[in-house]
Design a protein that fits this description.
Blueprint lengths: L1 H22 L4 E13 L6 E6 L8 E4 L3 E8 L7 E4 L23 E8 L5 E7 L11 E6 L14 E9 L4 H9 L9 E4 L6 E4 L4 E8 L6 E5 L4 E6 L2 E2 L4 E2 L1 E4 L4 E7 L6 E8 L7 E8 L18 H10 L26 E8 L2 E2 L2 E2 L2 E2 L2 E3 L6 H6 L21 E3 L2 E5 L3 E8 L5 E5 L4 E8 L17 E2 L1 E4 L3 E8 L4 E7 L2 H5 L3 E7 L27
Parallel strand pairs: 1-4, 3-8, 9-12, 11-20, 21-28, 25-26, 27-35
Antiparallel strand pairs: 1-2, 4-6, 5-7, 7-8, 9-10, 12-18, 13-17, 13-19, 14-15, 14-16, 14-18, 19-20, 21-24, 22-23, 28-33, 29-32, 29-34, 30-31, 30-33, 34-35
Bound molecules: 2-acetamido-2-deoxy-beta-D-glucopyranose (3 copies).
The site of one 2-acetamido-2-deoxy-beta-D-glucopyranose has 3 residues, from loops.
Length: about 550
């Protein structure tokens, strides 16, 4: 009798709980995106571009922390296609990451519905095509994750927030660019810089008000420097980190990176140049747009402000000035400083060195001598269905070694809840930009020359910021710390798309032998199957 009553009350409590859970459930947002070719003339000559729902660049996604996004992507191109969500962590859910190691590509005239949550995230992100050289001609867009109403952000709400997708651009078609790379050649230097798919746009605001500029480098290969004539910029956010709000005259943004600044229109009413120009390259390409005061009668004038004369040392110093605001919260109310990442003991160190070897007479790019090749079966599916022979867990060494470069489908095995140190060693004379899917990581150090264990004494173990893409300067190193709290198969790649396409990438398999939905979601029922996974039941 007593037991029944107890059970009954448990039932009532559970029922009430589930009712309140449903009520408190995070919003579902549904999108249908049709991907087609179209024609645009961003550089003055008509060329084929990739449209999403007729738009170039693609639609801007404005969402809120913890929103569930259901995005049905319909591929009307003549080639397999995938979108990846740059900086969205896909917690427990590498099934939705949209790269060839996790997803079968969406074949022409078919579709795939991505289902993912912007769990515990806030900030400025992007999405873009991960297949072939599609990214060169569009299909990308802004993805802004706003704070929930209950979470204060550490800056006043701007009058308007503008999204600026900035990147280098080619007049050459994406297929011709791919052909260059497939035949073992390097890409030529880009033809120009676009801001939101144009060489010129105007951003208008009222004198005295403050505006946010969310800036992302969506280009293929070149770092950019961003500045606004006559105005300073207060940096407030970098890829989801709320940073110490320093003021800058100009900011370097490397390929794949995002940040947001506040700009107060505190100058005399007139129009001002907004400038983005290439950095660390022999040629300087410049795009100018306009900051228009609504009470302005005067169009832009005077010299276009120049980028800083000093290149690498200036940029490295600026990179070191980006620091976490330890008392500010991020997507959740706990202060960023409460993580004390610098006190956690690392379980393993990796040193990944990029190189540009010729393999079989073709220009390739490699990491610790391994140049990655995509398999027909996504690694994640091979892992899930226990399909042997798709990838190797021991081809890539954890530190650089001597010998010839070779091709392999390289996966680095690590354990869930490890805390790793990764050093990107760049012995080339070219700028690097490294991205990790599924995570953000602390960027604890930048240095010149060869990294050694002594380099650790200069690490920032107190207020380094977290981000998802870190630059590595020529003949230099960058060190990051990663808390491996997200099980799955995660792409670590060069954000410089040519390098990624011909081998400068691999996957990190964050693994736990115990199968548990608490650690990783199950394969989605609509997962596309391809390669050796065809016909397997999901
Ligand atoms: C394709 O779209 C339909 C709705 O039009 C949807 O029911 C189906 O799940 C989608 N296919 C995949 C693989 O997501
Ligand atoms: C850090 O964030 C707090 C809000 O938590 C803010 O009041 C403070 O001004 C910020 N400090 C800096 C240096 O940006
Ligand atoms: C797997 O689960 C068992 C039982 O819950 C636990 O004792 C063990 O530590 C787990 N192993 C790992 C690697 O998490």
């Amino acid at each position: 009798m007593g037991r029944t009553v107890l059970l009954y009350s448990v039932f009532v409590v559970v029922t009430l709980l589930s009712v309140s859970l449903v009520k408190a459930e995070d919003a579902y947002r549904y999108f249908t995106w049709t991907v087609t070719y179209g024609t645009a003339s961003p550089m003055g000559v008509p060329q084929q571009v990739i449209l999403i729902n007729g738009q170039f660049p693609g639609p801007r996604l404005d969402v809120v922390t913890n929103d569930n996004l259901i995005i049905n992507v319909i591929n009307k191109l003549d080639a397999p296609f995938l979108l990846t969500w740059n900086g969205i962590k896909q917690r427990k859910n590498s099934w939705q990451d949209g790269v060839l190691g996790t997803n079968c590509p969406i074949l022409p005239n078919s579709n795939f519905t991505y289902k993912f949550q912007t769990k515990d995230q806030i900030g400025t992100y992007t999405y873009f095509p991960s297949t072939f050289m599609h990214k060169a001609v569009g299909g990308f867009g802004g993805l802004n994750v706003y704070a929930r109403s209950v979470i204060p952000v550490p800056y006043p709400t701007p009058a308007v927030d503008f999204t600026l997708l900035i990147g280098d651009w080619y007049k050459t078609s994406h297929k011709a660019l791919q052909q260059f790379l497939d035949s073992g050649k390097s890409l030529p230097f880009p033809d120009g810089i676009l801001i939101n798919g144009k060489t010129q746009s105007t951003f208008s605001g009222d004198q005295g008000k403050t505006y946010m500029f969310r800036i992302s480098n969506v280009g293929l290969s070149t770092s950019i420097n961003f500045r606004i004539q006559g105005h300073t910029m207060k940096l407030v956010e970098v890829e989801g980190s709320h940073v110490v709000q320093n003021t800058y005259d100009s900011l370097d943004v490397h390929v794949g990176q995002s940040l947001s600044v506040l700009v107060t229109l505190n100058q005399s009413p007139k129009d001002y140049y907004i400038v983005a120009s290439t950095r660390f390259a022999k040629q300087v390409l410049t795009a100018t747009s306009v900051l228009h005061y609504t009470n302005s009668q005067t169009s832009v004038s005077g010299p276009v402000p120049a980028s800083p004369a000093d290149q690498i040392q200036w940029s490295m110093n600026q990179a070191r000035s980006l620091r976490w605001n330890l008392t500010a919260n991020a997507a959740r109310p706990n202060p960023q400083g409460s993580y004390h990442y610098g006190k956690i003991t690392t379980t393993k160190t990796f040193v990944f060195a990029n190189s540009a070897p010729l393999i079989n007479g073709k220009q390739r790019y490699a990491v610790n001598r391994v140049s990655y090749i995509n398999p027909d079966t996504p690694l994640k599916l091979a892992d899930y269905f226990n399909i042997p022979g798709v990838f190797s867990l021991d081809s890539i060494q954890s530190v650089p070694s001597d010998g010839h470069a070779f091709l392999a489908t390289s996966v680095v095995p690590v354990s869930l809840h490890d805390f790793i140190e990764v050093v990107f060693q760049n012995n080339e004379n070219a700028m690097q930009s490294w991205h990790l899917d599924g995570y953000d990581f602390w960027v604890v150090g930048y240095g010149s020359g060869q990294w050694s264990s002594a380099s650790r004494t200069a690490y920032n173990l107190d207020d380094a910021l977290t981000r998802h893409t870190a630059q590595v300067y020529p003949n230099s190193w960058t060190a990051i710390l990663v808390s491996l709290d997200n099980q799955g198969m995660w792409n670590m790649r060069s954000a410089i798309w040519e390098r990624q396409y011909v081998g400068q990438q691999f996957y990190l398999r964050v693994f736990n032998p115990n199968h548990s939905l608490a650690n990783e979601y199950d394969i989605p029922p609509n997962a596309l199957l391809c390669g050796k996974a065809v016909g397997r039941h999901s």
